[in-house]
Amino acid sequence: MASMRILVLDTPADAARVAAAVVTDLVAQSPAAVLGFATGSSPQPLYRALAEKARNGVDFASITGFALDEYVGIDVGHPESYRSVLARDVVGPLGMAPLRMHVPDGLGERMLSGRAYENAMAAAGGVDLQILGIGANGHIGFNEPGSELDSRTRDVALAERTREDNKRFFDGDIDRVPSLAITQGIGTILEARELLLVANGAAKARAIATALESEPSASCPASVIRRHPDVTVVLDVQAASLLRQRENYRAQAETWLLRRLAPVR
Ligand code: GLP
Predict the structure, then answer these.
(1) Which of 21, 154, 168, 242 is most enclosed, with most CB atoms within 10 A?
(2) How far apart are CA 130 and CA 65, in angstroms?
């Protein structure tokens, strides 16, 4: 039976603290947990909150990380390659050994990269918790609308909308945004034992409403999370603004916080 917790918080910073608690609860239970890391701007407040936890003594040194996706054809040393972004936002701040963060190979033999990545994920025992953002067109990872719902890690062409959205990371110049990427497939993502999707801001409100309130369909890849048995969605009020039950989800977040902060008897 699918179960989805949707928690709506007033600000992105509050949402990040809740999402960070979901991550640290898992790491407290399983210090060697395998985490899937999304990039983009949505998880950045979460990564800052995790960095603060690391400074306050939470030990992330034994976790293993798998990136959700990577651009194809840009040098790994490029500041906007996802390998660089994750080194900057996650590996360093969380005190992970760099070799514990796996990133799909965007430069190697194209037919082999996807399969090699899936083999590495399987060898690590699979992903315990996959962190996800959502594109304004409903993409997860770089699975654009129309992606097969059982797709695996593979090369994909980026939608014009995605390249337009991401040009802010490339000096505002769409011509500098790669047109290909390698991404975990939707089928791959659904194999993670737990999913944590984070979204902030009004620009994501339409995608969130479609993902959470319509039948799962390839036209909104994020909607497939509804088929997963263990999902937490953490939103700020703006990203939640088009959800019919947004007030219930705010109340759920308050209950969740109260329960979690209750003194242990
Ligand atoms: C990016 C990433 C996705 C991310 C999404 C949203 O292009 N490949 O993993 O979730 O698009 O990005 P942002 O959070 O910056 O809006």
Answers:
(1) 154
(2) 10
Distance 165 CA to ligand 1 centre (A): 9
141 Cα–ligand 1 center, Å: 7
For the record, the structure tokens of 184 come out as: 């975990």
Report how many helices (DSSP H) and strands (DSSP E) the chain contains, helices first: 9, 10
Tens of pLDDT, residue by residue, the chain (265 residues) = 467 999 999 999 999 999 999 999 999 999 999 999 999 999 999 999 999 999 999 999 999 999 999 999 999 899 999 999 999 999 999 999 999 999 999 998 888 899 999 999 999 999 999 999 999 999 999 999 999 999 999 999 999 999 999 999 999 999 999 999 999 999 999 999 999 999 999 999 999 999 999 999 999 999 999 999 999 999 999 999 999 999 999 999 999 988 887 655 4
Atom in ligand 1 nearest the alpha carbon of residue 158 = 7
Q: For ligand 1, which residues put their CB under 6 angstroms from it?
A: 38-42, 68-69, 133-135, 141-142, 162, 166
- Cα(256) to centroid of ligand 1, in Å? 27
- The structure's pTM equals 0.96
- Write the residue with the smallest CA distance to atom 3 of ligand 1: 141
Identify whether the C-beta of residue 185 lies closer than 8 Å to the C-beta of residue 218.
Answer: no
CA of 21 to the centre of ligand 1 (A): 22
